[in-house]
Write a structure and sequence with these properties.
By secondary structure, the protein is α+β, with helices and mostly antiparallel strands. 22% of the residues lie in helices and 34% in strands. It contains 3 helices and 9 strands; from the N terminus they run αβββββββββαα. The longest helix has 16 residues. It binds calcium ion. Calcium ion binds next to loops.
Amino acid sequence: MLLYLIVLLQLFQLIAANAATYTFQSSSITVNEGESAEICVVKDGSHISVQNLVYIQVEEISAVRGVDFIASDQIVIDSMSGQLTACTNIFIPFNDDSETDESFRLTIITSPVNVHAYYVGMANVATVTIKNVIAPLSCKEKLLLLTCKTIEMTGKNLPRPCIPALGNP
Ligand SMILES: [Ca+2]
């Protein structure tokens, strides 16, 4: 019985020693609205020939899921055999709101289907920061702004369409 246990323990060690360790390529990712955030995990060099599905937990900080970023609460990266890095994209929709930077957090977690599949390294947390993008003015908007600015300089009362264009109360 004891022998069995010893053999079993050694077997576990062997399995554990053969598992790859994953970390994030970058702990801080910055992305503009309307673009995609590239999320990359890195496998330790001695396990380049190992393939795993790496699980990442996605949590809101100030950015709102489904509005500021498009991702479920758990995403999976296929870390192919023979490759050191594996990446996926999270889409960041553009919106017309003028806002401050928003962020969400990524954490590499152990596989929920097989906890022995891989190790989670020290650098297993990354923050994605979303930069607000100001929409460029269309030709019509530029023309309206120019007209309104001209009227404003003459000191005349501004016509109604000029009020939102100039951003005055
Ligand atoms: Ca915005």
